[in-house]
């Protein structure tokens, strides 16, 4: 990949986004859109500056903490479950429909029930985040391990390789690209899960702050928190991408390694 192409690929999305901001500002001014419908970028920036930095940091940390812990719990649960499903066709046929049912159930609908069952502490927020992030990780890990070439699996079994070595040394390496694809989806869903949980039961966090701001018609302030959330989600996504590129570069297509 040429240097010119790399620079274009890296800066084109940023330039596109930067060009939309003046268009947004100009459109709101020319059309006379009120701030309670769609605030201008300058109004959002002013609202952001009015809130103390320590308050922003506290709400951001509360959301990130739940999102990251929930994501890690999902990762720790999904990989062993995916391994079990790969090892047993019966378990796959038994659990897969249940996973689809769980995924298709709106989390917002069961959030109040989780609060009744788990209380009003951090447990229901972690449970909601896990429920949202769990499915793509299980599917990605299972699909990746099942994509292992059958010749390798048959060869390992002919050599009497223990099942544990077959999983860790043959199937899991083939699952790494799929697993990172699932992680990139799940890490952004973790932020969504944390925010949804904060809408239902929380006294801190960016989701709570958005709900608090809209209840007092501080729409620019709510937009500032929303943009803050988007930036945090993007940074987490890029962090997962960076981890794959640094530690598992062999799992990337050749054109993405540079």
Share in β-strands: under 5%
- Along the chain, the helix and strand elements come as HHHHHHHHHH
Q: Into which percent range does the helicity of residues fall?
A: over 70%
Q: Gap between N and C termini, in Å?
A: 8 Å
Number of strands: 0
Please state the structural category.
mainly alpha
Query: What is the residue-mean pLDDT, rounded to a whole number?
Result: 86
Which geometry do the CA atoms define? Answer: globular
Enumerate how many helices there are, as a single number: 10
Which residues form runs of ≥5 with pLDDT under 50?
none
Topology diagram in text:
Layout: H1 3-31, H2 41-50, H3 53-87, H4 89-104, H5 107-118, H6 123-146, H7 150-158, H8 163-200, H9 206-215, H10 219-247
Helix pairs in contact: 2-10, 3-4, 3-6, 3-8, 3-9, 4-6, 5-6, 6-8, 7-8, 8-9, 8-10, 9-10
What keyword list fits this structure?
82% helix; 258 residues; 10 helices; mainly alpha
Characterise the protein shown here:
With 258 residues, the chain is mostly helical. The protein has helices at residues 3-31, 41-50, 53-87, 89-104, 107-118, 123-146, 150-158, 163-200, 206-215, 219-247.
Question: What would you say about this model in short?
Answer:
With 258 residues, the chain is mainly α. It contains 10 helices and no strands. The longest helix is centred in the last third of the chain and has 38 residues, at 163-200.
């Amino acid at each position: 990949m040429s240097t010119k192409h790399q620079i274009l690929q890296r800066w084109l999305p940023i330039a596109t986004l930067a060009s939309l901001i003046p268009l947004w500002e100009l459109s709101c001014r020319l059309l006379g859109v009120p701030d309670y419908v769609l605030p201008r970028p300058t109004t959002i920036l002013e609202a952001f500056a009015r809130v103390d930095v320590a308050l922003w940091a506290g709400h951001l940390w509360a959301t990130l903490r739940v999102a990251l812990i929930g994501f890690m719990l999902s990762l720790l649960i999904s990989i062993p479950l995916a391994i079990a499903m790969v090892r047993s066709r019966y378990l796959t046929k038994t659990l897969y429909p249940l996973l689809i049912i769980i995924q298709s159930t709106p989390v917002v609908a069961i959030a109040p029930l989780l609060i009744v069952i788990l209380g009003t502490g951090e447990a229901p927020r972690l449970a909601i985040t896990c429920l949202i992030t769990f499915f793509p990780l299980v599917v990605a890990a299972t699909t990746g391990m099942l994509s292992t070439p059958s010749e390798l699996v048959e060869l390992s079994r002919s050599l009497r390789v223990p099942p544990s070595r077959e999983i860790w040394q043959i199937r899991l390496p083939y699952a790494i690209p799929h697993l990172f694809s699932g992680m990139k989806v799940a890490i952004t869903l973790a932020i969504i899960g944390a925010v949804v949980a904060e809408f239902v039961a929380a006294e801190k966090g960016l989701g709570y702050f958005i709900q608090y701001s809209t209840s007092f018609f501080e729409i620019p302030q709510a937009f500032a928190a929303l943009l803050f959330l988007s930036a945090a989600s993007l940074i987490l996504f890029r962090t997962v991408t960076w981890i794959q590129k640094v530690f598992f570069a062999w799992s990337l297509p050749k054109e993405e390694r540079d």
